Zinc-dependent alcohol dehydrogenase family protein
Amino acid sequence: MRRAVVTRFGPAAEAVGVEDYTPRPPGEGEVQVRMAAAAVNPSDLVAIAGAYPSRTPLPHIPGFEGVGRVCAVGPGVEGLREGDRVLPIGSPGAWQQVKTAEARWCFRPQPELTDEQAALSYINPLTAVRMVRAHAAGPGAGPVAVNAAGSAIGGMLARLLQRRGVRPVALVRGDASRPAVSGPEWAGAVATDRPGWTEELARLTGGGPQVAFDAVGGEEGGRLALSLRSGGSLVHYGLLSGLPLAGDLARRRPDVRVALFRLRDWVHAAPRDEVQESLDEAGRLVLEGAAASTVQASFPLERVREAVRAAQERGGRGKVLLLP
Ligand SMILES: NC(=O)c1ccc[n+]([C@@H]2O[C@H](COP(=O)([O-])OP(=O)(O)OC[C@H]3O[C@@H](n4cnc5c(N)ncnc54)[C@H](OP(=O)(O)O)[C@@H]3O)[C@@H](O)[C@H]2O)c1
């Protein structure tokens, strides 16, 4: 069998390789899953780069999201049989042909989803659904802004918000991403590489957003927080800049709130039934289009470095999949 592997942290396209391995037989409460498709997400790339060294033992088999079929069942497993299609979540390892996973962390994707859709039906759809539910009540709740708006999750947030009668303002880091935010779900777009972007945002939102979804952090996330109207919230859920938010935000704007969202925390704390219900809802939204991702390219495992480079391309045209 073949799998992607990282033996030393570093820039993802250089640090990841491919090796032969013999899958571990399933132990008590475990299954083996023959992976069919796996996503290449920013969270995979930062883990390969060594952003979470304490919880990323080496060698590291990347891939937090993917779909496959059960191919062997260990002792004590109930409710799963060979051939069942599952999302083996809660641990990395989707970038390999066979993943040995705990059965309690295997969830069922919506049956109507293709493997490509199912492989992208967990991390971004669930995060978008939960954040919109928690932080953007509806049309009366004030204007909303979304940064890294050309990302897969940016598009999902906009479409889910539009369903609630709110059209957010898109923030993109440059003109290359503008085509991705030209749809009717957006109220307008602002490029953050232009001087005066916060004034433009204030104009488009009539005095600043009430809620801003921040996947960037660093300087851009900080300026977005400062641009909120009084009583507003920054929902901080990503670090695409590689830098944290400035530590003095609370002092500079005591009248705004910073709320952190990490899907991982929610999934590990929620009862199993609730995770499956949320995945069912996310899967339906993928089928309806609101939480769907555009796939720009699929690569066999052997071309994992190319897959990583395609995912990192600036102004990319959608998600990249690995087909192990
Ligand atoms: N907290 C959570 O639980 C959670 C869950 C899901 C996703 N996320 C986060 O959400 C973010 C987006 O994920 P995704 O899968 O939707 O991404 P994606 O579709 O793979 O696209 C990456 C996007 O990031 C943008 N980008 C990269 N570096 C940037 C920078 N320094 N400043 C501004 N934009 C930048 C790119 O912009 P261009 O178009 O200009 O290239 C592109 O639109 C990631 O940070 C991810 O970790 C967090």
